[in-house]
Amino acid sequence: MTHRTIPGGEPVRVVLAGAGSMGRAWLSTIILAPDVELAGVADIDVGAARSAVADAGHPDLPVGTDAVALATAVGADAVVDATVPEAHHPVTTAALFAGLAVLGEKPVAATLAQALSLAAAAEVTGELFMVSQSRRWNPQLFALQAMAGDLGAIGTLTTEFFRAPHFGGFREEMDHPLLLDMAIHPFDSARFVLGAEPVAAYCEAYNPPWSWYAGDAAATAVFEMEGGVRYIYVGSWCSPGAETSWNGVWRVSGEKGSARWDGDTEPVLDADVQPVTRTPAPYSGIAGALQVFVDALRTGATPMGEVHENVPSLAMVEAAVRSADGGGRVLIDDVLQQAHEQALREETRADVRAALAGWTSVRHALTT
Known about the structure:
The longest helix has 20 residues, at 307-326. Strand 12 and strand 13 form a beta hairpin. The chain has 13 helices and 14 strands. The model has no long low-confidence stretch (mean pLDDT 96). It is of the alpha/beta class. Strands 13-12-11-7-10-9-8-14 form an 8-stranded mixed beta sheet. A 6-stranded parallel beta sheet has the order 3-2-1-4-5-6, with helices on both faces. Helix 6 (139-148) packs across helix 8.
C-alpha cells in the first residue's frame, strides 16, 4: 500500500515508546542510526524513561508518559513502539491517526483481530506501519533464502529449536510460552525463506514433566504452505544440553539438494548446482529494520515487514495454538476470517470499521 513519505534533508525525528529492556535496545540503536534523530522517550513510568535517557548519555532528552503527545510536542515524524504487546494496538492506532509513521516491535498486536484493525488503520491514515521482525533481518537468513532459490522445487523446510532459559516472570505463567512468545520468529522467517504463505496448520503442544513453565513449553507444528511445501517446526523451551542457536537449526530440502543453517554461522549448500555469487544483505537485527523503515519513508517503497505483509506470521501462531488446544488441522483462512469478524465487532472507530468491512477477502486484503 502507498504511504506518506518524508523528504530528505533533515533526519527523521522519532520518539521511542517504551523504556524496558527492549526499549533500551532500541534507544541505543536509534542514537547510533544514520539519518535518524531521537526526539524523546515515553513510558507509562516516566522515571524509567528518565533513567533510560540518562544511562544512554542523553539526560536532557524530552520524556513523557504518552508517546503520541510527546511526539506532537517535539515535532517528531515517527514513533518506534517498544511497548508490551497489549499496548501495541492503542499506541499504534493513536500514532497513525496523529500523522505519525510507526515502527513496531513484534508481535504486531496482542491478538490477530487487533492486527487486522491496525492494517485497516494504516490504510485509512496513509501512514507507514512496519513491524520489526528482528530475526528476519539476519544476513545469514538472507543467504539461506538465496540458496533455497537454487534448489529448484522445495519439498520441506524444517526448524529445530531447543533451549532451556529460566526467564521468571510472565513467560513462565503463559499457557503457550513457546508458541506465543518465541515461535513467531521462525514462523515469520519460514515465510521469507520459502516466499510462500501459510495454508493450514497442525500442532501438538505439551509440557515435559520436568518443565518449570506452567504452560506448554514444547511443541511440534506442521504447516502446509502455498504450493504444497511443508514447514515443520520442532521446539522446546525446557531442553537443557546441546542447545541450539536462538535462531534455531534449519534445513531446506529441494529437488536439487539441500541447504543447512545452524543459526549462527553461514549456511551451507549441499546440492548439484553451481552456486550463484550474491552480494551479502546489508541489514542486520533491529538496526537493519530501522534502516529499511527510514528508507521506505524517504522513497515510498513498501518495506518487508509492512503491517499487511507481517500479519500472516501472527496468523500462523494463532492457528498453531488453536490446533494444539482443539486438535486437528486448522485452515489459515478460517483463522483470518474469524479474526476479521472479531475485529469488526470490537472496532470503535467508524472509519477503521468501514475499511475492514470493505475487505471481501482477508487474505486478498493482506497480499495486494
